[in-house]
Amino acid sequence: MKKPFNEKSTLPEFPRDEVRAAIAKGIQQAEVQTNLCQTPVHIKRKNKLKPLLYVASAVAAFSIMVGSAAYVSPTFASTLSQLPIVGSVFNDYGFLGLKQASELGLTSSIGEKQTINGITVTIDEVLYDESNISVGFTIDSEKELSHRYFGTGFDLTINGKYYETNSSIYGKVLSPTVRIATFDVNDNMPDSFEMGLVLEGKGGEKWGFKVPVKKIKDIVYVPVSHQQQAEGIQLGVSKIILSPSGIALDYKATEKGTIDNSQVGASFIEFRITDQNGKEITSHSDGGEGHFDNGVWNFSSTKFFDPISKDVQKLTITPYLMLPSGGGGVQTKSSLKEVKFQPFTVEVPKQNK
Which residues form the DUF5643 domain (predicted)? Predict the structure, then answer.
């Protein structure tokens, strides 16, 4: 016999965060499945009216469900918690490539979290493409944390083995608790593996996660093999990579110098990319690496740009130097000068359309 309801009894605490998170991710998965049912694989612009209506209906239904009950049973809450969780960090971050990849269902929603000393770190979303592994994560703390509380960020392991690679962390302006960590992808990394992430705090905390990742498949490699020399700088662009998450441009540059001064012109190379209509593709400039050998500085890097639309037929690439403009770079700039590189064009392969 069921126990009668007693209005004066104390109800279990409603798991608001868990339920919201579970429903949000369930909706996201439904949207992805809806998109995957449509062809062709290289998706053109879709009419988003039906998916939006579906989401609105789902949210409305959930509101009615929650609003009509002051209590959710532990069994029901447990079932909801097994649904895919919360929306997309990438979708809200402001990088078009990450947003587009998330909307196309190319990212992996994780939702794994750990709390240590009142600080909760949650791995929300992961994207593994040809150039980067991007990890969206959030930080919730009972106390205010300094900007450098987590030092240099995550250490990365591949199938349990430490993997040394360049990494960086970006913070979201509108919400300092939201972060995106990126790791450079090297040629010898497997297409799928168990990724380990270890984050250490200044208070001695150590958050550890294990996340399965798989490289996206919708990638187009465009061999370039462009070489040019200007003002003593030898520049070579070997390839560009086109994917739903953006453009990646690989290059190498060399210049004679001395071992005690790496601030030569070749260390400041950047690129501007425009399409056949003169529209500039937004750059997300990143650093690179360099080494000195036999009187020559050797630099290499991958530069990242927003993805291009399906109607783009040709890209014009213009190298230039982004010289320091102030602060500690004033003295450096006085010994450098602008270098005029020649632009070159790249045809966009038909399979990208």
Answer: 222-347
Clarify whether residues 201 and 231 are in a common domain.
no
**What is the torsional sign of CA 158, 160, 162, 166?**
positive
Position 57: which residue type? S
CA 349 to chain centre: 25
User: Model's pTM, two decimal places?
Assistant: 0.66
SS3 65: helix
The confidence score (pLDDT) of residue 15 equals 53
Which of 60, 86, 112 corresponds to the end of one domain?
A: 86
Q: Are 266 and 310 part of one and the same domain?
A: yes
pLDDT at 171: 64
The 3-state DSSP class for residue 81 equals helix
Does one domain contain both 70 and 105?
A: no
SS3 23: helix
Give the CATH number of the domain where residue 267 resides: 2.60.40.1640
Q: What is the pLDDT of residue 20?
A: 52
CA 133 to chain centre: 7
pLDDT tens digits for range 150-175: 888 899 999 999 988 877 777 655 46
Which CATH number does the domain housing residue 163 bear?
Answer: 2.60.40.1630
Closest CA to 301 of 292, 311, 291, 293: 291
Give the range of the structural domain holding residue 165, as residue numbers without chain letter: 88-217
Tell me, yes or no, whether 203 and 272 share the same domain: no
- Which of these three, 190, 217, 244, is where a domain ends? 217
Backbone φ/ψ region at 32: left (φ over 0), alpha (ψ -120 to 50), beta = alpha
Domain tally, the chain: 3
Structure tokens at 125: 């979303």
Average pLDDT, the chain: 76
Same domain, 247 and 205: no
pLDDT tens digits for range 313-353: 999 999 999 988 754 444 444 578 889 999 999 999 975 55
The proportion of the chain whose per-residue pLDDT surpasses 70, expressed as a percent, equals: 69
User: According to the model, what pLDDT value does residue 317 have?
Assistant: 98
